[in-house]
From TrEMBL:
Family annotation (SUPFAM superfamilies): Thermostable phytase (3-phytase)
Swiss-Prot/TrEMBL keywords: Signal
Coiled-coil ranges (or none): none
Organism superkingdom: Bacteria
Protein name as it appears in the record: DUF839 domain-containing protein
PROSITE patterns cross-referenced by the UniProt entry: TAT
Length: 460
């Protein structure tokens, strides 16, 4: 552990999220290194209190509005079938004609109310109901021009990440083998989707990137290295990986050329959950080759990494590249489930040049009380000087913003009750992302599957 000083501030959230404890380090501003138009952070956090939505879908601050772009069960504009269930990870990708492509995951297994329609040439395993759909808009705040299947026949597509060359890497949070759980093929892979023409990318797994419970990926735009999180919520917990591509210059289809998969080892730190002080950093991070990336006999996280072991974290989820570093999320950790300590969410930053790992944000108070502001999942950079965090916990679900100065505010609250009045539950948020011009936020409600476009005074 390095001698980097740790600055701890316990904060109370604003604008409808009172009581969420979040501690941040003095390095929090480094999370915003790649934020568009974020040079001048706002003078006051947030946009005011959330206003109840009369339509009962999405509460937003005054001056903001939303449109429903897509909803599960309605017909896809392509005529291929209904909009699939379980909207999850998503990215907004621009093309040279000014259009915006929303590449959207569907976290379905072998059974779903609405599976991803099987399309010839785009289907990997006919027994699987997951996949990815693509919405094309005629501009950042434009109308939906098309909505079609990007890939089908994959399993539990949770999150993923955009590439510098304009494609979407969709990840299976599933490691079932052919002949188990009803599947006809092995699962646990990353697939590339070309949003402009999905048939160019097809349905070919990028096997060299490993077979495990993938969550999200982030690509170093300079070195071409791909970082990958593993969402393992049952011990032994998941690893943080990097993939060294054989063709690091990238381009559509380049990842099919293969490469080396490695796992992160932080000397003296076998369990990320045990670090409690924001600002704590660890130098000399090592990367160890994964013995069997295809996990033919043993899951990658359970393989032999030598007498010095490997570093693990419970529920490693969101991942993005910002400036010179990659940031990733541990959604929560619970000692009763095998973690070394409890927390309600961490955000970590890894600097490849310095080989340094730093804990930047810790969500939740130092207790077992579950409060709003817990279990961060998908995160993205926002144009006004914030990061946006999708909450994935219990009770009402929010999208929170965290400013450069560490102030926390609620941007949106979901109103879609998927339970009963006696035992209410709300669909989590996922896939938060901004249009390339920073003027529109896109976000999914997981269940019932709904994709929103939110506009408002982002730069106020």
């Amino acid at each position: 552990m390095s001698s980097t000083p740790a600055t701890r501030r316990h904060l109370l959230t604003r604008a409808g999220a009172l009581g969420a404890g979040i501690a941040l380090s003095g390095a929090v501003s480094e999370l915003f290194a790649a934020a568009p138009a974020a040079a001048l952070p706002p003078t006051d956090a947030g946009y005011g209190p959330l206003v109840p939505d009369p339509d009962g879908l999405l509460d937003l601050p005054e001056g903001f509005s939303y449109r429903v772009l897509s909803r599960e069960g309605r017909p896809l504009r392509s005529g291929e079938g209904p909009v699939p269930s379980h909207h999850d990870g998503m990215a907004a990708l621009a093309d040279r004609r000014g259009r915006v492509h929303l590449a959207r995951n569907h976290e379905n297994g072998t059974v779903a109310s609405h599976g991803v329609p099987k399309v010839e040439g785009l289907t990997y395993d006919p027994a699987a109901e997951g996949g990815c759909t693509v919405l094309t808009l005629d501009g950042p705040d434009g109308e939906v021009l098309s909505e079609r299947v990007g890939i089908a026949g994959t399993a539990a597509n949770c999150s993923g990440g955009p590439t510098p060359w304009g494609t979407w890497l969709t990840c299976e949070e599933n490691e079932s083998k052919a002949g188990t759980a009803g599947y006809a093929k092995d699962h646990g892979f990353v697939f590339e989707v070309d949003p402009e023409n999905p048939r160019r990318s097809g349905a070919e797994p990028l096997t060299a990137m490993g077979r495990f419970q993938h969550e999200a990926v982030a690509v170093d735009p300079v070195r071409g290295v791909v970082y990958e999180t593993e969402d393992a919520f049952v011990a032994p917990f998941g690893l943080f990986y990097r993939f060294l591509p054989a063709r690091p210059r990238g381009g559509p289809g380049s990842l099919r050329a293969g490469g080396r998969l490695q796992a992160m080892r932080v000397p003296g730190l076998p369990d990320l959950s045990t670090v409690r002080e924001p600002g704590a950093s660890f130098d000399g991070v090592e990367w160890v080759d994964v013995p069997d990336p295809l996990a033919v006999a043993t899951p990658t996280r359970m393989q032999d990494y030598g007498p010095r072991g490997i570093t693990r974290g419970q529920k490693l989820e969101g991942c993005y590249w910002g400036g010179r570093s990659v940031c990733f999320v541990s959604s929560y950790a619970r000692t009763r489930e095998g973690s070394g300590a409890d927390h309600h969410g961490q955000v970590w930053r890894y600097d490849p040049a310095a080989r340094r790992l730093t804990l930047v944000i810790v969500f939740g108070p130092d207790s077992d009380v579950r409060l709003p502001g817990e279990s961060p999942d998908n995160i993205c950079l926002a144009p006004g000087g914030s990061i946006m965090v999708c909450e994935d916990g219990r009770g009402a679900q929010h999208v929170y913003g965290v400013t450069r100065r560490g102030e926390v505010y609620a941007l949106a609250r979901g109103r879609q009750n998927i339970g009963t009045p006696e035992a209410p539950e709300w669909g989590e948020f996922a896939g938060v992302s901004f249009s390339p011009d920073g003027g529109t936020l896109y976000v999914n409600c997981y269940e019932p599957g709904t994709t929103f476009a939110v506009t408002g005074p982002w730069r106020r």
